[in-house]
Amino acid sequence: MTQNQNFIKDLIHQAKKAGATAADAVMLASTSVGVQVRNGQSEELERSETKTVGLRVFIDKRSATISTTDLHKDNIEKLVEQAISMAKILPEDPFSGLPEPSSKACIDPKELDLYDASERSTQEMLEQAKQTEAAALAVQGVSNSMGGSCGYSKNEMILANSNDFFGTYARTSHSLSACVLAGTGTDMQRDYDYHSTVHLKDLEDADAIGRSAGEKAVAKLNPKKPNTGILPVIFDPRVANSILGHLAGALNGYAIARGTSFLKNDMGNLIFPADITIIDQPYLIKGLASRPFDVEGLYPEELKLVDQGKIANWLLDSRTASQLGLVSNGHATRGPSSPPSPTTTNLYVMAGTQTPTELMADIKEGIYITEMIGSSVNMVTGDYSRGASGFMIRNGQLAEPVMEFTLASTLKEMFSQLHIANDLKFRYNTNSPTLRIDAMSVAGN
């Protein structure tokens, strides 16, 4: 057993010995390297290594959380003493406590394939960043660069609690990106492309990422403002995932328990069209947010948040589950210095049957959204208003670029009019195919 694992187990043992009725501890160890170039010259090189431990102790229904980066063994007693002292003076929380141990065995982290031993040298990362930027600058119409970047990270999590849970897993990440400008003077437009994977071999080609960033920027030149009106709207997958993010926020057990979600009374109700199913999948192989257990030592459940259009599950940790008279579905997350809260893992909407071209074929006039700007989304009422840019759709085809306009509706109205394409790809933590909403208010000219 490693020194880090012994440290975590000793923390739990000492906390119980000092009077805690229950305790858990998490260690997060991270190594990251990032390089950035601009116009072919190295501009930034960063490397960081961090290791932080968080201890949470319970004295009946009182609890306290404390964190440290001092991992010397003789610091354990001091850390435990401080946590116990804090817990004794904090108010009781009737919903606090460790969950009952999971009746299921945790999946072997190796089955999720979250760790890649490949690690590029700094020089290799610089060359990849330069190659990505060069491919973007080679696109005709690109006039300047905001940089090409290459990154790598390795993160390890160790968790133990007084219910005899002990688990550890590691995750790696490799990334490439480019951001460039097209045009000149006051008519310049910016765009980017980015890709991140668990395994280096799955990372997209540097030339493809750079070329995509350049082409996106050039396509936005000479934009106009659309006319104000009610129009059908198509969301590119790059921004469509934000709609799923709003749904996840509304189905978060914390918001449901507090009564601050516009979907708080809609469990079992048909909110989406009946052909839509939205899933949170913690066991996606090589998934960017996959995990074998949550931060409370529970086996996370694959959840259908929306099942054939109906709200089917909340996202729950043990505390919000207790408040709602339910059982945690293993979706707790936390940092070393904070208590657990519910969150998604790999969230996605199941793909439809139409291609993106077919999805917009009958639109005489509409808007194709490629970028969202700012946010005014009220999660209590579901009111939605966001700045956006993209392209006009005319007679089923993409037309001139448009920008400086606002989209408005309510999330419930948007959900009820949702249509989905078949181009689902897993590029982010939250993934969506191209989406269509039949009618939204557009405020432009």
Verbal overview:
- This protein is of the alpha+beta class and 445 residues long.
- It is 22% helix and 38% strand.
- It contains 10 helices and 19 strands.
- The strands form 4 sheets. A 6-stranded antiparallel beta sheet has the order 3-2-1-4-5-6.
- Helix 1 (3-17) packs across helix 2 and helix 4 (122-137) packs parallel to helix 5.
- What's the helix-strand series? HEEEHHHEEEHEHHEEEHEEEHEEEHEEE
The helix-and-strand class reads alpha+beta
Name the helicity range: 10-25%
Unreliable spans: none
Mean pLDDT reading = 94
Q: How is the largest sheet built, in terms of strand order? A: 3-2-1-4-5-6
| Main sheet properties | 6 strands, antiparallel
Layout: helices, strands, pairs:
Blueprint: H1 3-17, E1 22-38, E2 41-59, E3 62-68, H2 76-89, H3 109-112, H4 122-137, E4 142-161, E5 166-182, E6 189-197, H5 206-219, E7 229-235, H6 237-250, H7 253-258, E8 278-281, E9 303-307, E10 310-311, H8 318-323, E11 332-333, E12 341-342, E13 346-349, H9 356-360, E14 365-377, E15 383-394, E16 397-410, H10 411-416, E17 418-420, E18 430-431, E19 435-443
Parallel strand pairs: 7-14, 13-18
Antiparallel strand pairs: 1-2, 1-4, 2-3, 4-5, 5-6, 7-19, 8-9, 8-13, 9-10, 11-12, 14-15, 15-16, 16-19, 17-19
Helix pairs in contact: 1-2, 4-5
Pick out its properties.
445 residues, alpha+beta, 6-stranded antiparallel sheet, 5-stranded mixed β-barrel, 10 helices, 38% strand, PmbA
